[in-house]
Amino acid sequence: RLTSFIRLADYLIVHTMHTLAVNSVSMLLSYLVTHSKCSYIPDAMKPELNEQDDEHHLPPLFVTELLMEINGLYFTPNTNHYLVGTEEIIRRIQDSTLSVKNLVTDDYFHSFTKPKINDKFEEHSVGEGPSLAGIFEDDKHLQTLINNTNDTIEKAFELAWKYAESFEPFRQY
Q1: Nearest by Cα to 155 from 167, 147, 165, 144
Q2: Count of C-beta atoms within a 10 Å radius of residue 162
Q3: Backbone angles phi, psi at 35, to 5 degrees
Q4: pTM above 0.85, yes or no
Q5: DSSP string covering the chain, please?
Q6: Which pLDDT value is given to residue 150?
């Protein structure tokens, strides 16, 4: 009975860690979407706005620089840098939740999960417990959140490129 309780605790812990990771990625996506809907206009380019319109303009979440060179216009950091950065953030979120080990395989609980009676280990198999890494791989919702995060960054850069096109005549001059 105690072994079953330890397994149940493992499933509850894994579920909690999975929920924590999914909610963290969802919150990251929410911030990106919120900021991508707000158009940022530099102070020097702002027309006179009334106070109501000004409330809908959030400061930028990320800043990139537009470089004007003879060969063309470039963003630094570019889309790839931001995509790699968000992948790293998501990987670290998952790694932090994966760092919580299962109780079933913990040495502290071996006396309950693999009892030794008369110098022999009892033959009742508890297994390894739930695999959070496997759950992350199989979770279609989490994969959709990650893909939506990447899509949001790409869409933001598409808008930035549209804005950058307005500088093309200056570059050609």
Answers
A1: 147
A2: 9
A3: -75, -25
A4: no
A5: -HHHHHHHHHHHHHHHHHHHHHHHHHHHHHHHHHHHHSPP--GGG-----HHHHHT-PPPSS--EEEE-SS-EEEES-HHHHHHHHHHHHHHHHHHHHTS--STT-GGGHHHHS-EETTEE------S---HHHHHHH-HHHHHHHHHHHHHHHHHHHHHHHHHGGGHHHHH-
A6: 95
